[in-house]
Amino acid sequence: MPAVAPEISNRPSFSNDEISRRIQNAVLEHRLAPGTKLVEERLAEISGVSRTKIREVLGKLAHEGLVTLIPNRGAFIASPSAQQARDVFVTRRMIEPEMARQLANTITTPQLRALRRHVRQEGEARRRGEMHAVIRLSGEFHVLFAQMHGNEILLRLLRELTPLTCLVITLYDKPNVPACPHHEHDALIDALEARDGERAAAIMLEHLRHIEATLSFDAPATAAVDIEAIFS
Ligand SMILES: [Zn+2]
User: Fold this and answer.
1) Model's pTM, two decimal places?
2) Cα 47–chain centre separation
3) Which of 28, 39, 123, 183 is 20 to 30 Å from the Cα of 74, by its Cα?
4) Which of these, 73, 61, 69, lies nearest to 230 by C-alpha position?
5) How far is the centre of ligand 1, averaged over its atoms, from the C-alpha of 96 (Å)?
6) What is the Å distance from ligand 1's center to 151 Cα?
7) Which DSSP helix (H) or strand (E) runs through 184?
8) What's the gap in Å between 42 CA and the centre of ligand 1?
9) Phi, psi of 173, rounded to the nearest 5 degrees
10) Where are the beta strands (DSSP E) in the chain?
């Protein structure tokens, strides 16, 4: 095999975290579909890092459930089964209403401002018709909640569950219902601002049920994607 071509060595070299974040974002934005093959050589070439590093990143993503490693075949974006899809929502329903309830007791004014700002960005992306960005921002809204708890374990869990949810939505979405209902994020912030933990928990539970209700767990769709696009 030839050495790295000069035009490739001139490309910026990404850190492991950056590569991992880009793959996660591509999943969050529905640009990498479930089942997409992640070719090590190709990823190494595009990102300007060694195959060893790519293998490390893929191993970490596999650990998080976002990637499936199949011996002798390689790495693929995970393709959650209907059962796993349901499990993702069951888990989120167990965790996130309680997360919202507790946040109502501790939330600060700057945190409320940050949540409002985030929802404004969602709204702007929606108005501009940037559906990929809307989907990513909707997911990140939920990660922000975990971040505001300052609980590393909770944050890690949400960071895993959010892209998994996006994979599930990609696979099981009914057409034209792409992301979190926008006004429900506003209602959640209103409840937090009113320090009403019960209401925040109830809205979060309802919100997760609404997202789940937009899915149909019988007929997964498939799509082909260009992995180069995630590093462009
Ligand atoms: Zn949401």
Assistant:
1) 0.77
2) 21
3) 28
4) 61
5) 10
6) 20
7) helix 182-193
8) 34
9) -65, 135
10) 37-38, 67-70, 74-77
Per CATH, the number for 82-213 is 1.20.120.530
Tens digits of per-residue pLDDT, 58-94? Answer: 999 998 888 999 988 999 999 888 898 999 999 999 9
Question: Hey, which CATH number is domain 6-78+222-231, 3.40.190.10, 3.40.50.300, 1.10.10.10, 1.10.287.620?
Answer: 1.10.10.10
Cβ neighbours of residue 139 closer than 8 Å, sequence gap 6 or more: 28, 162, 163, 165, 166, 180
For the chain, domain boundaries: 6-78+222-231, 82-213
Ligand 1 geometric centre to CA of 139 (Å): 6
Distance between Cα 138 and ligand 1 center (Å) = 5
pLDDT per residue rounded down to tens, the chain (232 residues): 444 444 444 556 888 888 988 888 888 777 888 889 999 888 888 888 899 999 999 999 998 888 999 988 999 999 888 898 999 999 999 999 999 999 999 999 999 999 999 999 999 998 998 877 888 888 899 999 999 999 999 999 998 898 888 888 878 876 555 556 678 999 999 999 999 999 999 999 999 999 888 888 775 555 555 566 667 6
